[in-house]
Amino acid sequence: MLNATWLNTFTTLCETGHFTRAARRLNMTQPGVSQHLRKLEDQVGHELVTQQGKSFALTAAGEAVFQLGLSRRTEEKRLRETIETDDPDIGELRIACSGSFAMLLYPILMPWMNAAPALSIHLEAAPQPDILSGLLDGRFDLGVLGADPDHPRLEARQLGREELCLILPAGAPETIASFDELDARGFIAHPDGYALADDLLYRNFPGAYPGADRIHVRGYVNQIGQIPAPVARGIGYTLLPRSGVEAFDRKDRLSIVQLPERRWHELWLVTRRGRARPARLTRASEMVVTAARQVK
Question: pLDDT (tens digit, 9 = 90+) per residue, 37-73?
Fold first, then answer.
């Protein structure tokens, strides 16, 4: 790495074209400017100027080093502008949440992205353990978790909760008499579905529910937006958080069946503790809150 002070002196010398004027601008002595020049030439291993009386001309190496000096100044100027101007519409933002919540959040984020071409938002649907680890190691700036992480390096804010829903086709009976009646329809499974089944169905059909590994599976899909689609066409049943139902564009073809033992999953907005909060992170947090208000 070239010495930044010597490079700045040389760049100023090239701009002024005169040792005395360069010394005056830098608040240095003329011998000091000459000394920085010699040290930079030693570091580069080439002469940078050729003396022509009281003036000088740049060598080929000098031209290249001068361009580097100008480039460094431009980069430093941009850095200062970035640091001093915290524009919410500039920069990168990485958000992680469940797939069902992502379906609600992304339509809220898109108008902002459309209006801010210098903004880059990465929204990742991920399992809860991956969101937590990503927040801790810095891969995610913002996460939505189903519980308070209670971690010293994380800051969490509870947004509310959303109900875990049993979803059947529209027109289905309002009550389910037995697990066998439900199981006969067949489960539309998905990556989180088995854990949801153990959470909700076990509590509502004690003694009859055999465990997620033994239920009748009618189909499986890992695309969150497509999970309710077969149910909307009369095929099977599924389990989703409320956000997954609210984001489905044909939810009028679905029926949410209330079971006696209802279950809710909490929603927590999580960021790393102690870090400066850029304006874009504050705005994204507000949009997460807006999405959370759409679920019950």
Answer: 999 999 999 999 998 766 789 999 999 999 999 999 9
Label the pairing between strands 154-169 and 254-257: antiparallel
Query: What is the pTM for the complete model shown?
Result: 0.63
Instruction: Kindly list the structural domains of the chain, giving each domain's residue range(s) and its CATH number in brackets, ordered by start.
Output: 4-84 (1.10.10.10), 91-153+275-292 (3.40.190.10), 162-264 (3.40.190.10)
CA 52 to chain centre: 58
Q: Report the distance separating Cα 97 and Cα 166, nearest Å.
A: 21
In a 13 Å sphere around the CA of 192, the CA atoms on its Cβ side amount to 22
Is the distance from CB of 126 to CB of 96 less than 8 angstroms?
yes
pLDDT tens track for 83-103: 667 789 988 999 999 888 888
Neighbour-count burial of 86, counting CB atoms closer than 10 A to its CB (0-12 exposed, 13-18 middle, 19+ buried):
middle
Distance (Å) of CA 282 to CA 122, 140, 287: 16, 14, 9
- Token representation of residue 57: 């001309």
